[in-house]
Amino acid sequence: MTSDTYFTARGGWIEVIAGVMFSGKSEELLRRVRRAAIAKRRVQVFKSHLDGRYAGVFKVSSHDGRTTEAIPVDTAAQIAERVHVDTDVVAIDEAQFLDERVVSLATDLAARGKRVIVAGTDTDFRGEPFGAMPELMAVAEIVDKLHAICVRCGHPASRNQRLIDGKPALYSSPTIMVGGAEAYEARCRACHQVPRRDEDQADLLI
Ligand code: ADP
Ligand code: ZN
Questions:
Q1: Which of 35, 59, 105, 107 is deepest in the core (most CB within 10 A)?
Q2: pLDDT mean across residues, the chain
Q3: Does residue 47 lie in a domain region?
Q4: 40-44, 118-122, 168-172, 195-199: range with lowest mean pLDDT
Q5: Which residues, judged by CB distance below 6 Å to any ligand atom, belong to the binding site of ligand 1?
Q6: Residue 138, domain extent
Q7: Pocket test for ligand 1, best of 23, 61, 155 (most atoms within 8 A of CB)
Q8: Which residues, 6+ apart, have CB-to-CB distance to 124 below 8 Å?
Q9: Around Cβ 198, how many Cβ atoms within 10 Å?
């Protein structure tokens, strides 16, 4: 049971689904969207263009293969332009890739009586706050932080391990990589590796 189940606010509100990759954020977003549709709410789903998972940029896909149609956007302003006046629920996936104005957008939509569901990766590959996610978590009424399973030790995973050519990426690696040459693993804090310099790599047990 997640915390959206019993939430009945007067007017609109903001829900954030945060966590690492593979933690089930998209699954949870889709679950809430499906239930809103069953309740005959008018739902619009948006998603950052930057996530091309399964090459399906017009869909929200979870790792279990379920999908729903999504409107691809590059900026928060594009969401503002596309939200219909009679929409009840606005769902946004991969919010960490959107600009800071997504915070005022979500706040504005909630003030206009809409339920806003935002899913995103709350920490980058370094384990540091990612994009507008920390602010979204602060202004939200409800925050669910999900965990994956650490592929190293089987404990709850709270970190995104970036690997380049099979080795942990350096701290100085860019926050967002274009081209997709990198790979990611879910890891716990203890198994997460972010070397500061090339020499540090020699000390790592990979
Ligand atoms: P997210 O949107 O957070 O990246 P998804 O909803 O797309 O997550 O995918 C979650 C699913 O990924 C899980 O239900 C599971 O089937 C699968 N999965 C693959 N690797 C892992 C892992 N290391 N830990 C947990 N789930 C994983
Ligand atoms: Zn671990």
A1: 105
A2: 88
A3: yes
A4: 195-199
A5: 19, 21-27, 62-64, 148-149, 151, 186
A6: 13-147
A7: 23
A8: 96, 130, 160, 175
A9: 10
Q: Which ligand is nearest to the CA of 54?
A: 1
> Best of 28, 29, 63 to mutate for ligand 1, by most ligand atoms within 8 A of CB?
63
How far apart are the CA of 192 and the centre of ligand 2, in A? Answer: 7
**CATH code of the domain containing 26:** 3.40.50.300
User: What's the whole-model pTM score?
Assistant: 0.88
Rounded-to-integer distance, Cα 4 and Cα 21, Å = 21
Given a cut of 90, whether residue 160 has pLDDT beyond it is yes
Instruction: Report which protein residue has its CA nearest ligand 1's atom 6.
Output: 24
In a domain, 165, yes or no: no
The Cα–Cα gap between 19 and 149 comes to 12
DSSP, res 144: E
Total of domains in the chain: 1
Give the span between the Cα atoms of 107 and 91, in whole angstroms: 13
Q: Is residue 10 very low, low, confident or very high in pLDDT (cuts 50, 70, 90)?
A: confident
